[in-house]
Amino acid sequence: MNATVLEVRDLRTHFGQAKAVDGVSFSVARGEVLGLVGESGSGKSVTGFSIIGLVDPPGTIVGGQIVFDGRDITRSSREEMRALRGRRMAMIFQDPMMTLNPVLRIDTQMIEAVQAHENVSRMDARARARDALGMVGIPSPDERLQAYPHQFSGGMRQRVVIAIALLHRPDFIIADEPTTALDVTIQAQILAEMQKLVAQNNTSLIWITHDLAVVSRLADRIAVMYAGRIVESGPVSDVLARPLHPYTAGLIDSVPSRNRRGERLRQIPGMAPSVARLPAGCAFAPRCARADAACAQAVPLLTAGPREHRCVHPLPEFRV
Amino acid sequence: MTAAVARRLLQAVMVMFAMTVIVFIAINVIGDPVDILISPDADQIERARVVQALGLDLPLWQQYLRFLWAALHGDLGESYVYNEPAIRVILQRLPATLELAVSAILIAIVVGVPLGLYAGLRPDGILSRVIMTVSILGFSLPTFWVGLVLIMFFGVQLGWLPSGGRGQTAELFGVQWAFLTKDGLAHLILPAVNLALFDACLILRLTRAGVAEVLPLDFVKFARAKGLRETRVIGVHVSKNIMIPVVTIIGLEFGSIVAFSVVTESVFSWPGMGKLIIDSINVLDRPIITAYLMAIVAFFVIINLVVDLTYTALDPRVRLQGEGP
After folding, report:
1. Which residue ranges does the record assign to the ABC transporter domain (chain A) (predicted)?
2. Which residue of A has its CA nearest to B216?
């Protein structure tokens, strides 16, 4: 359980001037579920794509290390990365309507995924695909293999995608908001399914989302991203109950269900900064009520037991 | 599926029928063939005899019904010039045009698709920019002028290739084909390249636009995330998604090439249908013109049917009208 599967050290992925990811560090232990939380544009998806080596140009990893299996995979060749993708690491995307190729049958898309990494016959690959579909709870998988993506509902498609991700029993899966596009009932089913499957296979999971409710149900640990940096991380119950960084607190307060009925909905004042023009110090300072002159300095990572944060004026621990 | 095809064929018959009306009336408007057929010295009696023999003295609707009745029996009239059934004259010329059109389309595909893929995958590369610029020239320059330049350069200056005629032919399935002999093939190259130029550029630009559209989509990223090799991502996932517009254009352009290769056939004196129709219009050879237009309509209808059937093979979401879900 404690062995580290993936360690990201000071990762910097820039799109020209825009520092989409600027010094992100975290690690994931075997079987652990890490919730990577942040609002749109905070760099959480780019972090995911950086790890599997699929950052869209003009984005490039300009610094830092991604240590997997004892080596820094930012230095791996394209072919080495290809051999890892899908086999040792997998990714699931947000919109299941867009993830599967509309003009290829499910069996084609699954068999090719098996054969990309293993020298097996079509028949064997097909059997593997069928078993994988059965595992994620798709009824009569033999028939469904013959179908095209448009013949599935959104939830079923996401199950197919999850089945593909699990085909090679990867060490970790990056899930980029995989339930955001689904109905709440389907969302709950997929979450439960995912939780069960990663626990069975002892697969680590990096769950990228903006939905704190999902994270609180699923994750062991949480890392909150703001403007390309992780501003706070720690065990999920601790962070959600007693946030140290004012941004985390604002994020928690913004969840409508936490507010009282009839009361004005809470929000964080101001807007997220452009990652092309970040201040030298804390990026959240302009929106923060606690900010003062000290926040203009670069904030180092501060540790408090199992928790880490980047705030010179952390919130007191007794906060309700 | 069968029902859909049957429905298409029925539509085709109705289109053909509508065509006969239009063609028959239009052809009566453009001129009186009698003036050309009869020598200026012929007297009034001789003239009346010819007019009667051709049935031109009847009212137009009677002429039309006679034509329609004969057409239903597979007789589109006898050419005034060749004194042979018009349909036979057309069919004799069809292979020449067909082999020219097929060669041109093949060249256009073989050149257009790979270059378009390349330009789409490396949109900022220098070579891609060169390809795109040249392609603008390719479909802006008039075909006849390019044909003349090709003749000048390869025919006259370099003397590598013959610049006119069809050369030697050989028989296959009872039909004479030029592409079967070395000489015929040499004669085929210049006109085929000339005809292919426009379509190659069109296909190239379509392919490039398709790649640019499909490449950023999630399913391409997911295909890569599965660890597929780049050749498979491009060759299967991207290609199959961009083929629908390309197939449409190939179908339409193939029809146009067959129907309107007039210019190229004239420039290269290629003895195909295009040259025949121009010659026939000059002498108002009505049966040939009619038969030609009917043949072209039939041809377009068939091509469209084939293109529609290809869609269903390429994209499972496409279903022919009239076909069950």
Report:
1. 6-252
2. A56
State both tokens at A302.
């501060």
pLDDT the model gives residue B251: 85
Specify burial of residue A105 (Cβ count, 10 A radius: 0-12, 13-18, 19+).
middle
Could you tell me if A164 lies within 8 Å of chain B, comparing CB atoms? yes
Residues from chain B that touch A208, judged by Cβ atoms under 8 A, are none
Name beta bridge partners: A65.
A9
Query: Is A102 within 8 Å of B236 when comparing Cβ atoms?
Result: no
Distance CA(B254)–CA(B303), nearest Å, equals: 8
Chain A environment of B229 (Cβ under 8 Å): 82, 116
Do strands B170-172 and A302-304 pair parallel, antiparallel, or not at all (unpaired)?
unpaired
pTM, two decimals, is: 0.77
Parse chain B into domains and list their residue ranges: 86-314
Q: How confident is the model at residue B319 (pLDDT cuts 50, 70, 90)?
A: low
User: Can you give the pLDDT at residue B323?
Assistant: 46
Work out whether the CA dihedral B316, B322, B324, B325 comes out positive or negative.
Answer: positive
According to CATH, the superfamily of the domain at B86-314 is: MetI-like (1.10.3720.10)
Write the burial class of residue A163 (CB in 10 Å: 0-12 exposed, 13-18 middle, 19+ buried). Answer: buried
Cα angle value A90/A91/A96 (rounded, 5°): 135
C-alpha span between A178 and A198 (Å, rounded): 15
Q: For residue B114, say if its preceding peptide bond is cis, omega within 30 degrees of 0.
A: no
CATH code of A1-32+39-80+221-258+275-320, in short, is 3.40.50.300
Residue A101's alpha-carbon distances to A141, B71, B223, B237, in angstroms, are: 18, 49, 8, 7
Q: Inform me whether the C-beta atom of residue B246 falls under 8 Å from chain A C-beta atoms.
A: no
Query: B236 — contact with chain A (CB < 8 Å)?
Result: yes
Q: Chain B within 8 Å of A198 (Cβ-Cβ)?
A: no
Nearest alpha-carbon partner for B238 in B230, B226, B247, B227 = B230
How far is residue B143 CA from its own chain's centroid? 15
Task: For B105-200, list the strands marked E by DSSP.
Answer: 170-172, 175-177
Coil/strand/helix, residue A22: strand
Q: Is A278 on the interface with B (CB under 8 A)?
A: no
CB contact under 8 A, A86 and B222: no
pLDDT tens, residue by residue, B241-262: 888 888 888 888 888 888 768 8
